[in-house]
Amino acid sequence: MSYKDVDDTKRYSVPAVERTIRIFHYLKANKRATGAEIAKDLSLTRSNCYAILKTLQLHGFVLFDIESKKYSLGPIFLEFVRTIVEDLSLIHVARPYLQNFVENSGLSVVLEQRVNFNRLLVIDRQDCADDVRVIISIGTRIPITHSASGRALLAYLPSREAEELVNSVSVIPLTPKTMTDPAEIIDDLKKIRARGYAVGHGENLEGIDAIAAPIFDVMGEPIGVIACAATTSTLSEGRLEHFGNALRSTSDEITVAIGGKPPK
């Protein structure tokens, strides 16, 4: 990082957020403390400190013990830690299978995880050696109703939940081929369950097709997908089924490796 980057970071620093972060670090180091102790040790005004603490308490970031009058970090941090661990665990377990798929198919592949009720997040990517390839950046968020990736997961949700999502999460048409009609999407979900993977033809970019297959947890619920995007000529009708079945086999291997189970 350059000095200019540091200066820019300081320029955009928000004092209230800075004070909140300092309180987090203080409670991490001291476990429990009263508001007065926190304010004194961090050189904060009592009113400012209490306002921050009560706001954090309201949202579950800190707990307040009435008897001791002390604050401690709240359980919501456990949820954050669990999410991070799950992400890292899935990446770690899935990566060898993704690499094997790339070596055997010559296609790049991405790993996507459901991060809330209507979004997928690209959390890993393995690229092929081909000079011509479609790049999907890690950190890309994908609406669950959009493209092959979203529909690959959507197809294995309970029917009522899937229909509610299809009817509530709008799809932005990126090309004339983008599937946006709820009835068409719901009909496609049946086809996905029948073949085991989702297919998209030029929905994000004309001339680029996609395939995606789901990953399931121990309860048999879909938690993510693996997906490929390539030129229409690469995923031609004659080769589409071959690559689709190979991708689904790989997603099933990942499912088993994380202790999950594909639906019957």
From TrEMBL:
<dbReference type="GO" id="GO:0045892">
    <property type="term" value="P:negative regulation of DNA-templated transcription"/>
</dbReference>
<keyword id="KW-0805">Transcription regulation</keyword>
<dbReference type="InterPro" id="IPR014757">
    <property type="entry name" value="Tscrpt_reg_IclR_C"/>
</dbReference>
<dbReference type="InterPro" id="IPR036388">
    <property type="entry name" value="WH-like_DNA-bd_sf"/>
</dbReference>
<dbReference type="InterPro" id="IPR029016">
    <property type="entry name" value="GAF-like_dom_sf"/>
</dbReference>
<feature type="domain" description="IclR-ED">
    <location>
        <begin position="76"/>
        <end position="260"/>
    </location>
</feature>
<dbReference type="Pfam" id="PF09339">
    <property type="entry name" value="HTH_IclR"/>
</dbReference>
<dbReference type="GO" id="GO:0003700">
    <property type="term" value="F:DNA-binding transcription factor activity"/>
</dbReference>
<keyword id="KW-0804">Transcription</keyword>
<dbReference type="InterPro" id="IPR036390">
    <property type="entry name" value="WH_DNA-bd_sf"/>
</dbReference>
<dbReference type="Pfam" id="PF01614">
    <property type="entry name" value="IclR_C"/>
</dbReference>
<dbReference type="InterPro" id="IPR005471">
    <property type="entry name" value="Tscrpt_reg_IclR_N"/>
</dbReference>
<keyword id="KW-0238">DNA-binding</keyword>
<dbReference type="GO" id="GO:0003677">
    <property type="term" value="F:DNA binding"/>
</dbReference>
<feature type="domain" description="HTH iclR-type">
    <location>
        <begin position="14"/>
        <end position="75"/>
    </location>
</feature>
<protein>
    <submittedName>
        <fullName>Helix-turn-helix domain-containing protein</fullName>
    </submittedName>
</protein>
<dbReference type="InterPro" id="IPR050707">
    <property type="entry name" value="HTH_MetabolicPath_Reg"/>
</dbReference>
